[in-house]
Amino acid sequence: MNQLRVYHNPRCSKSRQALQYLDAKGLTYEVTKYLEETLTKSEIKILLNKIGISADELLRKGEKFYKENVKGKEWSEDEIIDFMLEEPKLIERPIIELGENAVIGRPTEAIDKLL
Questions:
Q1: Is the pLDDT of residue 85 over 90?
Q2: Fewest C-beta in 10 Å: which of 17, 23, 69, 108?
Q3: C-alpha span between 8 and 99 (Å, rounded)
Q4: 73 assigned to active site
Q5: How far apart are the two ends of the chain, measured CA to CA in Å?
Q6: Looking at 2, 5, 10, 12, which residue is catalytic?
């Protein structure tokens, strides 16, 4: 069976809630702390494909970097991904991946779509 992987930011309450949700279901998973283990452009593109969303939809639009550097301008998918590489906090979290599918675990019940 494929391994569950959680792209996690320990400082984010929603991300911690996702881990608690998986623990409560008795599931095992691997954790990728994506602020420390920086994702590659290819990995971000694969996750976008697995979630089925555009790069813009994966952006955390409340972040200061977004408001100061991205908001209100037209950017290509690659340019948006480049922003995520430069400032990983821009990536919405948590992302839960299982095999060929992934979801953003907000709300935590969204994780059930994978299980």
A1: yes
A2: 23
A3: 17
A4: no
A5: 12
A6: 12
Instruction: Supply the pLDDT for residue 2.
Output: 77
* pLDDT, tens digit (0-9, with 9 covering 90-100), for 25-67: 999 999 999 999 999 999 999 999 999 999 999 999 999 999 9
**% of the chain beyond a pLDDT of 70:** 99
Q: What is the C-alpha separation between 95 and 102, in angstroms, rounded? A: 7
The residues pairing with 104 across neighbouring beta strands, listed in sequence order, are 95
- Side by side, the strands of the sheet bearing 101-104 are 29-33, 4-8, 95-98, 101-104
Please name the residues in contact with 66: beta carbons below 8 A apart, sequence gap of 6 or more: 59, 60, 83, 90
Buried b / exposed e along 12-49 (16+ C-beta atoms within 10 A): beebeebbebbeeeeeebebbebbeeebeeebbeebbe
Amino acid residing at 72: G
Which amino acid, 90? L
HEC assignment per residue over 86-102: HCHHHECCCEEEECCEE
